[in-house]
From TrEMBL:
Its cofactor is Mg(2+). Pfam families: 5-FTHF_cyc-lig. Residues 19-30 have a biased composition (Basic and acidic residues). Residues 42-56 have a biased composition (Basic residues). It comes from Cellulomonas shaoxiangyii. It catalyses: (6S)-5-formyl-5,6,7,8-tetrahydrofolate + ATP = (6R)-5,10-methenyltetrahydrofolate + ADP + phosphate. It is an enzyme of class 6 (ligase). GO terms for molecular function: 5-formyltetrahydrofolate cyclo-ligase activity; ATP binding; metal ion binding. NCBIfam families: MTHFS_bact. This is 5-formyltetrahydrofolate cyclo-ligase. Its EC number is 6.3.3.2. Residues 1-59 are annotated as: Disordered.
């Protein structure tokens, strides 16, 4: 069972059979419900807090188990080019899956974050080449940038997420970077969100017009397809 508190942006049913119950329900209904942005902000806070409670040893175990699962995804197993990312502290670790794919000779594209929401990619050239270019940003390769459209070369796109629901709605960090990136992915290419098991929600996430869904989810325990790709 999930240990991340489920979001509560749905208005609870209320009211009894008498006038007092109806008035109470009306009073509760008249309170302003949180907007999608506000609900996302609160859920991000909860997930980040939960992630902060995991020990370094547990994070290492999670990363190894996650790699073992991701490598069983058929599209990953047969890919010649994969878009992935260097995880930040608290995120499910991607180091082992990156090293495993690189060891197979798979071409790896990692994000390079420019100013503002500028999108770019660079090829992975080993862990020694990764650098944190600015506080709070994920480590980036030092190889030449390839441009925003380079992600179209990817046979699979592995993306970070704070949470995901059964429809494939993904909760990101809030900057919208990956929502814009996914517009460049070739049609039909699997987009896989990497999360902890307790970050898969049993209620729908609020989806805004700019949100782009994923087509699969991978946790340290298993992976599965979601949304239109389910089944």
């Amino acid at each position: 069972m999930s240990t991340v508190a489920q979001p509560s942006w749905h208005t609870p049913a209320g009211g009894g059979g008498d006038g007092r119950g109806r008035r109470g329900a009306e009073d509760r209904g008249s309170a302003r419900r949180p907007s999608a942005a506000e609900a996302k902000h609160e859920l991000r806070r909860r997930v980040r807090t939960q992630r902060g409670h995991r020990s370094p040893r547990l994070r290492d175990q999670v990363a190894e188990r996650l790699a073992a699962v991701v490598l069983t995804i058929p599209e990953v197993a047969h890919a010649s080019c994969v878009s992935v990312y260097a995880s930040r502290p608290g995120e499910p670790g991607t180091g082992p899956v990156i090293e495993a794919l690189a060891g197979r000779g798979v071409r790896l594209l990692l994000p390079v974050l420019g100013t503002g929401l500028q999108r770019d990619w660079a090829e992975y050239d080993g862990a020694h080449d990764l650098r944190e270019r600015a506080p709070g940003r994920p480590p980036e390769p030092g190889t030449p940038p390839l441009g925003a459209d380079a992600v179209r070369d990817a046979d699979v796109v592995l993306v970070p997420a704070l949470a995901v629901d059964a429809a494939g709605t993904r909760l990101g960090q809030g900057g919208g970077w990956y929502d814009r990136v996914l517009a460049h992915v070739r049609p039909g290419v699997p987009v896989v969100a990497l999360v902890h098991a307790d970050e898969v929600l049993g209620v729908p996430l609020p989806r805004e017009p700019h949100d782009r869904p994923v087509s699969a989810v991978a946790t340290p325990e298993r992976w599965w397809r979601v949304g239109a790709a389910d089944g």
